[in-house]
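Subject: sequence -> structure tokens, single chain

Hey, anyone have a minute? Need the predicted structure for the following. Not urgent.
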Amino acid sequence: MPKVTRTKRTTVSIYLEEFPNETFRSDGQVLYCQSCDKSVSIDQRGQVIQHINASKHRGNRDRKLKFQQNFISTSSESTNSKSVFNDDLCRALIRSDIPLFKLKNVAFKKCMEKYTGHKIPDESTLRKNYVRGVYEETISKIQNIIADGPIWVGVDETTDADGRYIANVIVGKLSTEPSKPFLLYCEELNKCNHKTICQLFNNAMGVLWPNGIIHNNVLLLLTDAAPYMCKAGKVLDTFYPRIVHLTCLVHAFHRIAETIRFQFSEVDSLISNVKKIFLKAPSRVQTFKDMYPDLTLPPEPIITRWGYVVISYSDAAMAIKKTTELIESKNLQNNLAFISTNFRFLVDTISKLKTSKMPLTESLEIVDDAIKQLERVPGEIGVLTNSKFKNVLEKNPGFNTVMSIRDILLNKTPNNNYSEIEYTPKEIICIKYAPVTSVDVERSFNRYKAMLRPNRRHFTFENFKLYVVSNFFPHEDYDSELIFNF
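Reply:
Had a minute. Here:
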């Protein structure tokens, strides 16, 4: 009897009956896999089997089935209870720094609803009902990770785009292994003085330990060398008896860079003026690029950026060499050569000290090497910079203490010039990875300023600080759950 050729409709129907647990559907002509969002060839049964056994299909199918189960369970929830999907969505938007008002975008909203199967809430719903929950979850995770400590604390203050005094408090756990810092507290200050800093510090510790501040487990305080910060450190020493106040060592090297800048006024003026020549002058910029395509434009000097002065001198030297028509003083080339030869190491020193998770011994070894190189700088400039740096270190209240701890960790006899320490052996071991810079606080300010974009200036600070703290949390290391349970 001759073989009867089956129609496509018949073949598709057979496969749908044979594989009822698969996510296949058909219009009578094409076998379509909903999990993979593609059609499956029906010419041979082996091709269908191969598609079903593919790991990609199995993963897509399991995810699809799990999504359907979650959709059924969330649909049956009471309207008064919070939606798990909304909570996950709010968390994902905050930690990705995606403004909640993006949910008003029709295209974005339709796309999310199409591929998630959930109704996308209004941004006001998330802001009023879910943002604080994400913040409280973040604080709870920080509390669980830090536990009873011991801890180090970094405090700094800045002025934001709205002219507010903003202070951030960073905490990290001191242990024998490197740990990540957390932004614990962000607050607006009415005034910036030692009293407000002390109050800020105590409030932050109250957030970390709501059942009672463990004063003896705060071992290290990192700030800049501003007078009000130093005064705050002395006041806090009364209430936190084991705390050591260390001012940022990167700031110390920045002070040296400022000293160098003041000694070479012609170079400083030239760098500023060269940049001004190219501002709002596209024809000059194009001419410069045509003549010297391998050179970048002279950098714009930013005095408040650590080490930028020295970097400007070194990098601008090449540009200035090619634009000799701008140079009138004969001493400029000599000054640039002197700076590059004797102070180039400051750039590398600052860059190395800003590295995260560096052992205390390595950080202080970098400082020791820099001190030795400063001592080798010849002439009056060398004497001036060396004297300046020694003066800065003498005013650093915790420098001698951390140097003594460094010597103990290296099994060296502590220098007589260093102070005696009162830490227990267990506490000394925990200080192995203690930071010596406040760069983590500076990074939190960078994140803060990046989030405070012009289209977010209507934020109330009470809401905005919830966003900042939640966004800064290193969730990729501490969140084990999936953001969306599809």
